[in-house]
Write a structure and sequence with these properties.
By secondary structure, the protein is an alpha+beta fold. It is built from seven helices and ten strands. Strand 6 and strand 7 form a beta hairpin. Helix 5 crosses helix 6 and helix 6 crosses helix 7. The chain starts with a helix and ends in an 8-residue tail after the last strand. The site of adenosine-5'-triphosphate has 23 residues, from strand 1, strand 2 and strand 7.
Length: 221
């Protein structure tokens, strides 16, 4: 991957951009506009960007991984200024990709590696941008119909007021992995305190069709 032409170009474009002190979901569009301007691949729809509150994700047609770049800050509505993230569950308390990398390793140690997409740092650019990769996944919206069996299990669990932000994705997991295995994984998520930010957009399907968590870094500013 590191020698792939797309990756080499991405690094070149990133190193040609002046990020300033703060990089976040409030100013990322300026970077995305720049990327569009310099990248023929982007202009030809071979690259696209998605982002949430904590990361920019660059998705390329010719890669089976995506590139994730952590934001370092957010807009503070009270103080009317940008503030660095300080609560990411990682050594660098601003880096939610590093948080995912650390959590992936914990999931693996506990036998849950196949439920979470592996995030892994591959490069740090000259101008200080950390680039991570994750296997490319596909949208939860492609979900086939939920089986009656999973709805039944889900109905039972729902009575316990599961501490999951938006739990409908559990149906796909129950269908695929079975209630017994999933119960163990859910207990692990809740015990580890990874459960608060789990909702449909943070779930994907691998290239081979397994449902998987693609964003499991939580959000604590
Ligand atoms: N592995 C992946 N394959 C394909 N698309 C992805 C992948 N990871 C992320 N995305 C897309 O990028 C979006 C943002 O990624 P992610 O959820 O990791 O960022 P975030 O900033 O942590 O989001 P949030 O606002 O939920 O905290 C996802 O909702 C999804 O659309
Ligand atoms: Mg997300």
């Amino acid at each position: 991957m590191k020698n792939s032409l797309s990756f080499v170009k991405l690094v070149k474009y990133i190193e040609g951009y002046s990020f300033g002190e703060f990089f976040n979901d409030d100013n990322v569009d300026i970077f995305i506009d720049y990327l569009y301007e310099v990248s023929e691949e982007y202009q030809n729809n071979k690259w696209r960007c998605e982002y949430g509150a904590t990361k920019l994700v660059i998705i390329m047609d010719d890669e089976d991984i995506v590139f994730k770049i952590p934001f370092n800050s957010t807009w503070d509505y009270d103080g009317h200024e940008y503030v660095f993230f300080y609560g990411a569950p990682a050594i660098s308390t601003w880096d939610y990709c590093e948080a995912e990398e650390e959590r992936y390793n914990i999931a693996k140690e506990n036998g849950f590696a196949n439920y979470v997409a592996k995030t892994n740092m591959v490069y740090s650019t000259k101008n200080g941008v950390r680039i991570y990769t994750q296997p490319k996944c596909y949208g939860y919206s492609r979900e086939k119909r939920t089986s009656r069996k999973s709805l039944e299990v889900f109905g039972k669990w729902a009575k316990f007021n599961l501490p999951i932000r938006e739990p409908s994705w559990l149906n796909a997991f129950i269908d695929h992995y079975g209630a017994y295995k999933l119960k163990k994984f859910l207990k692990f998520l809740i015990d580890e305190d990874w459960n608060d930010d789990l909702s449909g957009p943070n779930i994907g399907y691998t290239a081979t069709g397994e449902p998987i968590l693609i964003d499991y870094s939580s959000y604590m500013e």
